[in-house]
Structure formats: structure tokens, C-alpha cells
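yo

u said u wanted the structure for the complex thing, so here. seqs first:
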Amino acid sequence: MGNHSDGSPNHSGTVATAGQNEVEKFQDPGIPPHRLRLADTDPKAAKRAERQVALLFGASVVGTLIFLVAYFAIDLGDDSSIATIRLQNALLGVGTAFAMLGIGTGIVHWAKALMPDHEVSEERHAVRIEEDRVAAVRIVDDIVEETGIKRRPLIRNTLLGAVALAPLPALAVFGDLGPRPDNTLSHTMWAPQEGKLKRLTRDPDGTPIKASDVTLGSAFHVIPEGLNELHEGKLNEKAKAVVLLMRLDPSSLNPSKGREDWSYNGIVAYSKICTHVGCPVALYEQQTHHLLCPCHQSTFDLTNECKVIFGPASRPLPQLPIAVDDEGYLVATSDFKEPVGPSYWERDEHERSINS
Amino acid sequence: MSAASTAEAPAFVAKTKTGRITDFVDQRVGGSGILREFGRKVFPDHWSFMFGEVALYSFVILLLSGTFLTFFFDPSMAETHYDGSYLPLKNVEMSVAYSSSLNISFDVRGGLFMRQVHHWAALLFVASIGVHMLRVFFTGAFRKPREMNWVVGGVLLILAMAAGFTGYSLPDDLLSGNGLRIIDGVIKAIPVVGTYISFFLFGGEFPGTAIIGRLYMLHILLVPALILLMIVLHLFMVVVHKHTQYPGPGRNDGNVVGYPLGPVYAAKAGGFFFIVFGVLALMAGFFTINPIWNYGPYDPSPVSAGTQPDWYIGFVDGALRLMPGVIGDFHFEYIIFGHVLTLNVLLPALVPAGIIFTVLFMYPWIERWITKDDREHHVLDRPRNAPTRTAIGVAGFTWYCVMWAAAGSDLIATHFHVSLNDVTYWLRTLFFIGPVIAFTVTKRVALALQRKDREIALHGRETGRIVRLPHGEFIEVHAPLDEYKHYKLVGFESPVPLPAVPNDHGIVTRKEKRRAWLSRWFFEDRVAPATPAELEAAHGHHAQPAVEAREESKSLSH
Ligand code: HEM
Ligand code: FES
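structre next:
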């Protein structure tokens, strides 16, 4: 009872760190005696295991045949339906699975039931032997000595300089991976072209939208006029120019100074590119007048110039100033007054140059 | 002269044709020596050692299925009109890359199967690497001499995620394009060089027409080659170190106990490859993964609610979601000297992943510094026998899981009918306190398990048999363990805190003090393994010969 340790934490009466107190430790009884399996003692059991293994290998052959039949017998003609493809896919899967699992389980069963399962012990050897270390050091010393690099600092220093500079071309050749960033990020297709204001058109068919089409509570996905006719860089332009158009009760909008004429009869247009990291902000909650980005749930308040009210975005969505042309179609009176989409290092600079 | 003497040695002449071919090769490459060295090398066996194998085999399957896909995939972003057999997309404008992925799915026989095998194998690849690393961590297998192999493993994890992400982006469907959009947004947030990197990566503005071709090269050449290189290094070191083994009778740091490579171990491991392949084939046959035809071609405009990235990207996406952009009137994006600093993107994108990987890479050295332990360890720790390490691991894992769960915050909200904002608030809280709770609970559980082990070692295992003693008391009969099982419960090391030691100048440095503090934090709560003396005492204490089935084994009775 004397030194009965209760094993509670902090009790260090029975320290058993390696090296010390070896006497206080239990002796290792050694590898447990080997137990024979049924198949080791009973030839019938061994025979049975043998047949099972062969059966599994046989199942693999069947699997291979299933695969081949599924591949050649099911024809994916021009009018193949999804159902045929699914059927073929499933059969190819079953075939391969049988073919592979048959071999795999067969071999493992063979190993477990029939191959000797004696655990054996092998000694470990040091990763490094002291003798080798001494020899290696001597060799390195000799090599260094023969180069004479220690005695000739001029050679050493010029070599270091050369080697340090040599990789620079390897970096420089990547210079043409892309153009230097210029102010393309701060312009979109909405900028009036030769004095002509761009119409707001429906995404994706490009038909123009009349102010009278936009009823209270409705929302439109909008692209600029002419986008669909672009041959080059269409996606690049679209990635900046997509807009959401909604009509609210004009009294619920609270435009700040200078923005009073950016809307028309309660119709407002906001960039659809999230100011967080650029997903399309495409969910409009009519009742609350919130816009929600599906990617990380940034929520913007339409009645407050799309101020962020929840989520990881930190900046309001840029507003597109709109008006109506003489035929009653909605047009953008200018480009966005700030760069759209995710922030970038030069963004503020760009914003200032737009507004100057 | 010497040439003559070798010629005089009685030459071995093989009798069969195969024998002659083998001998021919052997004389030129020295295969006999290799076989002699490795043919019977001993490998310890345990189910938890299979995760690394699963990773290796999924990589092989990725190489095979990926090579098939390259024969049909066209990484061009040129515009085309779809003309394949999937009717809903007929004539839709899309990139050649997307159209060729659709063709692989619908017009190449077995193409869909290969795509699905490839994608499932990719998910399994990253998952098995992750689980393998958890096994290595919780058993302390990263300790000397295996620290560098732990680092190689960490690099492999990063490369695997890179391989997965570059592959996920290739088909140029709506989801993969959206993923690239997010990456572009994150890259642009990098101070000073972000915009440059973005323009260089995409060859100009997002999305441009270069990115898929570039990712393709990374995906099928550079990243797999690096992975292969790392795998070779990894396995080379495994051979140099030999495998670790779980503690148990007959196993110590000087030996390795297990099965010889040939035949049992090789058969089991080789057979296992086919099993992994078979299981992946079943999944590919029956469970649709990444049905790109449902998503449509990439377009910066459409809605994509409820979509998820591949699982291994989830924790970064979740971190992005958890970060508030605005708190009250404080905006996490602000302007310094006319330049934009986007902390609401930078912090979540870089800091959690940065912390996880830094700690992961440094952990072997951290523990080594705290314990001042320079010995080689080939016998693993049972996780309960290293309570603080285990608790650290579970805390880190919990942190990861919170972020990962955050990537599905909208799904959690719709599934459990709760408000999305509340889910986010809860997860934000858990982000901070989750790891603390996990640490405390895990440590308590580990200590409790250790105490139970100790109890069993001293008093035997509960048999469930209740006996009434002559004087009326009821007790449960405890049966002693056999000496092998007993040794498993007592044969482990239980380090104690190492107090600060003065250096050569007799000074206890501040760093040393910090180390000592950490050492106390690490080891002050400990349950020492039972000792022979204690066993003796316990038996004397419970002198109930009628009940305690005494059957002391020889080695325990001294
Ligand atoms: C090293 C680990 C690898 C990982 C984790 C990986 C992962 C992926 C993933 C997730 C995809 C998207 C699949 C889909 O369409 O749903 C993919 C596509 C692809 N991968 Fe890999 N892959 C790896 C290696 C390779 C290799 C070595 C090759 C070729 C030699 C390859 C060739 C391809 C091709 C051609 C595609 C596009 C095909 C398509 O999407 O239809 N991959 N990869
Ligand atoms: S991209 Fe909109 S919330 Fe992240």
C-alpha cells in the first residue's frame, strides 16, 4: 500500500522517463507466441481457402468480360440518351470493380489465409554511422582543399556573384506572360461611344429594355448594348459590365448628394460583380430590398446605395447612372464612376482618375 | 591479371530460358543484391498504415485515368458552338475546353467513366493524404529521425491541393470559372504585386483566353512531376528509416517487428491497390461527380447558389465567408497612401492557411525543442499517452473543420431551417473558442483513458461477473490480463516537465524559461504507467483470494 500511486495527474512519484528508473518498469515479455490458423493445421480448411481465392480470381475474369461487353455492345450513337450513357457508365463501373476487387481480395485472402503469418523481428541500424561521418568529413575537406576555394577569395566571390545573378534571366523571360496592368480595369463597355449612350439590354439575348417594362418589384439581368456582337474579349467585357436592374418605390431610395439623378422613377442599376472577390451578386430579395451574393453571402442594401450589411464584402456595389432615351429605352448616362469588382492595389488611384 | 582471375571463377549457368534472361539482367544491374537487401525486409502491419498506401494508389490511378483524358481533352478557350449529343446544350456558345469535356462525357465511350474515376480518385487522393498525416501526427511518427519526411508529406499535401484545383478548373464550366473568379479576386487583394500577378496569370484581364492552357500544363506536367518527385523522396526515406511500429510486447526502438516483404506484406499491399481501384470504379460507376453538363459553360453573369468547391478547398472558402467585411463603421478595406489594402480578403485567405501550414511544418521542431529529446523514436505513441500533443492535434483539426463547415454555411442554414446570419455568427464564435474547447476536452479524455489503462493494468479487466462475498458485499470479478496485453498498457514513456537549465555561462536565458514553461504546460498533467511495485501493492491491498482469480505470470511476480 505504501507507494500505491493513484495515477492522478501531477503525481510524479513514479517517473518513468527513458534511461532513468529502468528498474521500476515492467519487463518486455517479448513477441507473443505465434498462433496457428485453421488453414495451418487443417488441410481441409487450407483447401477451402485455396478454392475461395480461385473463386475471387474467377470473379475478376467475369468483371473484365462485363466491361468488354458493356463497352462494345452499348453503342453511343449520335442520338444516345443520357439513360444509355448512365447504363454504360454503371456497367463499366461494375465490370472494373469486379475485375479489380476480384484480384485484390483474392490476393489479400491468399496472403492472410495461406501464406506464413509469423511475425519476425529485425534489427534497426543507425541511419548514420560515426565512422562514415568522419570519412565523409575528410573527403569533403580534401575536395575543398583541392579546389583551393578558401585560399582564393577572388574566385569564390566572383562565383557567388555570378551564381546569384544567373537566375535573373530565368525570371525575366516570364515578362510576357501578360500585359502590364493599365487602367483597363477601371473602364467598362458602358462608357458612351462617340457620344451615343449605351442602352441597357437583357442578358443573354441583348434586347433593349424600356423603362415601362420594369414594373415595381421586378429585377432584370442586364448587359450593355453591343456586347453580344463583340468577337474578341466578350467574356472579359461581360465580366465587368453585367448589371442588375430593379425598380423600387422611389421614396425608399436614399440617394446621396450628386447621385440624385442616377436613377429613373425608382429604377436603379447596380454592378452585379461582387466587391468581395467577384462572383455575380444575383439574388434579389424583393421584400427586404437586399442583394445577396451566393458565393460568401455578402448582403447589400438597395435602399442604402448597396451598402454592405452582412458578409465579407467591405465596399458597396458600384451604381450605374441611368436615364431614358427619347424612345423610352433605358440607357447608361456614363460609365461606372468607380472600378467594378474586387478591390486591387491601384483601385483608389483609378477611382480618382475617373472622377477628375 | 584481375580480369583473368574473375574469368577463372566457376561461372553460374542458368538452366531455363527465364533463368538465363534473369541472369543476363542481373549481371548488368546487380538485381541480386537489391533483392537480398529488400526481399525479406520486415514491415510492421496495422490498419492505420493503409492511408499512405491509399494515397499512393489513388495517385497511380490519377496518372492512368488522367493520361486517358489527355487524349480527348482540348485546353483551348476559343469560342465554339456545341455540336455533340447532349441536346440541352446544342448550339450553345462555349469554349473548346468545355465542349471537349462534354464530348469526353457523352461521345467517347468510357469517357464519362474515366472522368468520374479521375475526379473521385482526386478527392480520395487528398483525403487519404490528410488522414495519413493525422495518423502520423497523433502517433508521434514525425519524431526523430522522420522530421524531414513529415515536411515532404506536408509539401505533398499542398501539391495535391494544387493538382486538384488546377484540374477542377480545366473543364471551363460555370463552377470552375467561378472558382477561378474567386482566385482572381484573392490574388488582386495582394498588396503591390496582386494586380500584376493576376494579369500575368490570366494573360491580361480576367478571364482572358490563356488561363486554361496554362493550368493544363501545370496540371498534367509540372504538378504531377513534382508530386512524383516528392513521392520518390518520401518512399526513399521510409526505406532508410524503416517503418515505425505501434508499441507492444517485443517491440522497441531497436527493432522492427512485422511481416517480411515477400510474400505476405507485398501480397497484402499489392492486393490492396486493386481493392482501392475497385472501390473507385464502383463510385465512378454509380455516383455522379461534377456533372458539368448541368452547370453550362462559364459565364460571368448567372447565379450559382448552393454550389460547393471540391472538399479540400472548402476550408479557405469557409474562412473567406467567416470574415466580416464591415464591423459597425469599421471597414476592413482601407486606403493607405492612396493604395487599397483589402484586409477582408487578405486576412482570411492567408492567415488561417498560413498558421495551419506553418505550425504543421514546424511542429516536429517545436516538440523537439520543448522536450530536448534527441533520441530516435521508432515505436509510436498511443495518442492517449501523449495527451497534450493529441489535444493540440484535435484543436487544430477542429479549427480546420469549423472553417470547412463555414464553406457550407448556406447549406447548413437551408437544411436546418435557421437563419444564415445566425449560422455565420455561431461559426465565427466557434472559430475562436472551438479549438479551445476541443483542446480541453481531448486532454481530459486522453488522461481519463490513461487512468483507465492504469486501473486495468493494476487490477485486471472487468469481467462483468458479479460475486457476492460471504459477508454480503457484492463485487465484480476482475481477471488479470495476460502478460502481453498487460505490457501494452504499461510499456510506454511518460515524460515529466523539464525545468529550465542554465546555459554554459550559468544563465537561464529568457528562451530557456519559455521552453521550461511550455514543457510544464505539455507534461504537468500526466498519468504515469503502472509499475511492478504498484502492482505488488495493489495485489496485497485487495487480498481477496476467493475472488481475484490469481494467475500471476512469471515475469510479473518479481
Ligand atoms: C496529381 C494528381 C491529380 C489530381 C488531384 C487531379 C485532379 C483533377 C480534377 C479534380 C479534374 C476535374 C475532373 C472533372 O472533369 O470533373 C481533373 C481534370 C483533368 N485531369 Fe487531372 N488530376 C491529377 C493528375 C492528372 C494527370 C497526371 C493528368 C494527365 C497526365 C491529368 C489530366 C487531366 C485532364 C486532361 C483533365 C480534364 C478532363 C476533363 O475535365 O474532362 N490529371 N484532374
Ligand atoms: S464574392 Fe460575393 S461574397 Fe464573396
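Residues 32 and 119 of chain A are 9 Å apart (CA to CA). Residues 82-113 of chain A form the longest helix (32 residues).
cya
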